Amino acid sequence: MAKILADKRIETKHGRSRPVAKRHMPWGTWALTLNAIFVYTFLYVPIIVLVLFSFNAAKVGAQWQGFTLQWYNELFADARLGDALWTSLKIAGLSTIIATTIGTLAALALEKRGWRGRKAFDTGLYLPVIIPDVVMAVSLLGFFTLAFRQFQALLGLNLAMGLWTVIISHVAFNISFVTVVVGTSLANFDRRLEEAAADLGATPWQTFWKIKFPLIGPGVLGGALLSFTLSLDDFVVTFFTRGPGVNTLTTEVYGRIKKSISPEINAISSLMLLGSTILVLTSLWMQRRRQA
Amino acid sequence: MYNARTEQRRAWLQASPALIWLGFFFLAPLVLILIYSFQGRADDGTVLWNWSLANYQKLFADGAFWRTLWLSTWIALVVTAITLVVSYPLAFFMATRSPKRRGLLVLAVMIPFWTNFLVRIYAWKVLLGNNGVVNRFLDQFDLGPLQMINNPSAVIMALIYGELPYMILPLYAALERFDWVQLEAARDLGAGRFQTFWHVLLPQTLPGITAGSILVFVPTVGTFAVSDILGGTSVNMVGNTLSLQFGSASNWAYGSAISMIFMLLLLGAILLYFKATREVNDGENPG
Amino acid sequence: MKLNRFGLLLMVLSLLVACGEATPTTTPPTTPAGTATGGNSGSVDRSKLSETLRIYAWGEYIPEDVPQLFESEFGVKVTVDTYSSNEEMAAKIRAGNSGYDIVQPSDYMVALLAEGNYLAKINLANIPNVANIDPANMGLYYDPNNEFSVPYLWGTTGIAYDKTAVSPAPTSWSILFDPAQLSAYKGRVSMLNDEREVIGAAMLFLGKDRNSSDPADLEAAKKVLLEQKPLLAKYNSDNVYQDLASGEVVLAQSWNLYTGLAMIENENIEWVIPQEGGVIWQDTMAIVAGSANQYTAEVFIDFMNRPEIAAKVADFTGALTPNVKAEPLIGAELKAVYPKIKPSAEDRKRLDWLRKGQNATAFSDVWSAVKSQ
Question: Is position B35 within any domain?
Fold first, then answer.
């Protein structure tokens, strides 16, 4: 036991616990690997299909009719899709930053026990998770309409829907998701670490950044990724809360889908995939170089 | 320095941005839906201001709604269960890699989801359709065609696909910060693999399981796009009913009543689930 | 900590790179007003034109270069946002302050929106090209004097089928509703995902009025639909054209707008208005009440009614143009199938409108019951 405790102390000094070496893993490594291969294959099969079909000469159907770059040419000539992608990224980026900040703070508040209203807050936070998105969309449309009328009547301010109403709404549905994920990494957090730091004279600010943040970092990142993805994928809420000229990739695709999912849309999806893959590889490469 | 009052004050301070934001942009709009649910439908499809309980009376007698709710719940349960069973070992796998690999693995989960969800659903249709890639392949060997689309299994599979990251991420977050020394300790103390898992790993990753299950179950119950595109005529989910009422039927009042009851039931189920998991957890770690 | 920094870096990088990626595809700066010379834009008072015009249109209804053509001729920046159902559009317009100048409601929605004072009265004097429109498409029930709307595209609802798979050629709705006939195509048939179109077709099959909301008729229609349901592949109103063209379905209740496109891709696709009758519909252009850019909107509607522009719209959508002067200008692809999808004078007698609005709940209740069964 003493050895284990000593180990643990060392771990703590590094600020985080690390998994023990592979050979100690009590679980069938091969089964885990097999499962991982299976899941990643499952995740990427439709993606591969999508990429392949962006090069397919056939306009409709699943038949391969030869290689073409036609859809990419059309895509680059299509300013609407490019603009829509940029708008989507703007909305997703901004709403993720705001929602991650607010959501993480809320998770920290929830972690503190015994304040009045904690339980109601905790339960209430699940409402935005369980609300069907069409209901949220309709309710926000009704709310903004009402609010704008009041602003006009009382203050003479003439407000209208725009990009900002979309971002506000995305933050509203993202906060809870971030809080849930960050809360997960805060659960079972050893409060004594904080107390010890405080006893040793660390300010709450120092305690947070030196002790707590490193531990919840992956949770915050997870929450941010989740919120970015949710925002990028949202159609209904965006549709109802946007103003004229605000056109995201989903609203654009939805408009076009009446007719067909065109190979051009496969092409822009492939480019997005390529973009994100390049980013991942670049940052990994940079990280390796820094370590070398 | 850590007295209760400053702690309370700090908690409120940290909670306030979320409280304010959600109060204005979630709760207030939701109250509007609650109000709509007591109104009626005008002939032109707008909300007719006429307070009554008619929508709720209609809803409780509406067999179609309760059938739909039952099917949605069943599908969501299956999807959540399968997603959990597949994701837990994957999250475990990810969390036990070197930190460098871990980042890559997390991102590899996310990358497919940085495309449009409709595009992803349609990719499944291209794969599994009557004239899809798989059937064309089978055709080469004079097999098939298989009917793989327009049935509940196609919906379940596509939903599992779409919801995987929402299960994997919270599980990974929980496993990532697990203190692996404990496993070694348990083994040193003579616990078997199953015992170690059941008494050490599982209780400590329970918050991740709870969060993941809810993040998967809830959107699944309310989904409409997947069932629309891949479900054929056999799958009508609550989301489809809602989009009918808020869409072409233009009956916002009835749609609002459905939403209120649906959310109430869902919230009740989640609270029960929380209570159950907490009891399991307390049973494991008394005190 | 490594993962954090790495993750943050990634978020920031992804935003930066995305920014760089998108920049080259953004629209070039607008041409200043008056530099381009227009064809028949002489009578337009350019001083009254606004700087921008905001259009809320059906998805895939306005060809991408058309707003640019308008912009280079008149110097007005045109933005087009899209929707995919009348009700989605109406929700935004009724909320007020939508910011849109022009919308494209279908027939019944023109009536509903006009009734609620959500549409502005159009000054047809500013739209001389309205003379190009077939009188048969003007002055219809939903807007008898065309005070609020100008026709944009029109079409019908009938049956599309693949002639290599479905024989003999169907002439009646019974191919879709008589289980004995339909079972031959089990799993390869789709109906529109629209309570009024589907119930309306069942009513026609039963020899009733397509708009009947009589409880006994609705009950009979429900019975027919429940018998039909297990034999269908799906209810689908989106991209029926792709399903038909690729052979995913071989028989479908469809709009001619999809059918024309499917015919272009697949020569085996045929179209019929069943003997019991079919549905006629028309999409329009209307100006939102309170629009600050009414004059510019009228100039735009006039522009859209130029024969060459209207022909472009028909080519792009595969729907029927009400513009008689545009018909000869339609591209070769669509021209080849146009006679097949355009109802003959004889067909036209069997067509009627779906009058939505009243009793809508009765239809949606039947529809919910059928879909959940």
Answer: no
Distance from CA of B189 to the nearest CA of A (A): 9
**Within a domain: B43:** no
Q: How many domains does chain B have?
A: 1
Q: Tell me: the pLDDT tens digits for C109-123?
A: 999 999 999 999 999
Q: How far is C251 from chain A (nearest CA, A)?
A: 16
Residues A253, B119: C-beta atoms closer than 8 Å: yes
Q: Evaluate whether A222 touches A106 at the Cβ level (below 8 Å).
A: no
Q: Does C239 touch chain A (CB under 8 A)?
A: yes
Mean per-residue pLDDT, A266-277: 84
CATH value at residue B101: 1.10.3720.10
User: C217 to chain A, minimum CA–CA distance in Å?
Assistant: 31
Which residue from B45, B103, B147 is facing C3, i.e. has the nearest CB? B103
Taking the Cβ of residue C230 and every Cβ of chain B, the question of whether any pair is shorter than 8 Å is answered with yes
Give Cβ neighbours of residue A278 (< 8 Å, ≥ 6 apart): C17
| CA dist C42 → C99, C129, C231 (Å) | 29, 13, 58
pLDDT band at C273 (very low <50, low <70, confident <90, very high): very high
The residues with which C53 forms a beta bridge, in sequence order, are C78
Taking an 8 Å cut-off on Cβ atoms, the answer to whether A239 and C88 are in contact is yes
List the domain range (segments joined by +) for residue B264.
63-284
* CB contact at 8 A, C306 and C40: yes
Residue C253 β-bridge partners: C159
CA distance to A111, B100, B110, B199, C242, per residue, from B107 (Å): 28, 12, 5, 31, 34
Which contacts qualify for C38-41: CB closer than 8 Å, 24 or more apart? C38/C73, C38/C74, C39/C306, C40/C306, C41/C73, C41/C74, C41/C299, C41/C303
Residue partners of C349: CB distance under 8 A and separation at least 6: none
Please state, in angstroms and rounded to a whole number, the distance separating the CA atoms of residues C102 and C99: 10
What CATH code would you report for C46-154+282-335?
3.40.190.10
CATH of C155-280+340-372, one of 1.10.3720.10, 3.30.1390.10, 3.40.190.10, 3.40.630.30: 3.40.190.10
> Which pair of structure tokens corresponds to residue A215?
């531990």
- The angle subtended at Cα C59 by Cα C54 and Cα C63, nearest 5°, is 75
| B100: chain C residues, CB-CB within 8 Å | 2
Asked if residues A260 and A71 have their Cβ atoms less than 8 Å apart, the reply is no
What is the bridge-based pairing of β-strands C189-191 and C234-235? parallel
**Hey, which residues does C234 pair with through a beta bridge?**
C190
* H or E segment and range at residue C83: strand C77-83
Q: φ, ψ for residue A222 (rounded to 5)?
A: -60, -45
B7 part of a folded domain: no
- Check residue A105 and give its pLDDT: 94
Q: Is residue B48 part of a domain?
A: no
- Quote the ipTM score: 0.87
What chain A holds in terms of domains, given with CATH numbers, is 29-60+262-275 (no CATH), 80-259 (1.10.3720.10)
pLDDT for A112: 82
Phi/psi zone of residue A140: left (φ > 0), alpha (ψ -120 to 50 degrees), beta? alpha
Residue C203 has pLDDT above 60, yes or no: yes
Listed by start position, the domains of chain C span 46-154+282-335, 155-280+340-372
Of C56, C21, C28, nearest to C291 by C-alpha is C56
d(CA C203, CA C40): 48
Listed in sequence order, the residues at least 6 apart from A31 whose beta carbon sits closer than 8 Å to its beta carbon are: B89
pLDDT tens digit string along B115-140?
A: 888 888 888 988 998 888 888 888 88
- Range from A123-127, A274-278, C302-306 that averages highest in pLDDT: C302-306
- Residues of chain B short of pLDDT 50, as ranges, are 1, 286-287
- pLDDT at A22 exceeding the cut of 80: no
CB contact under 8 A, B249 and C363: yes
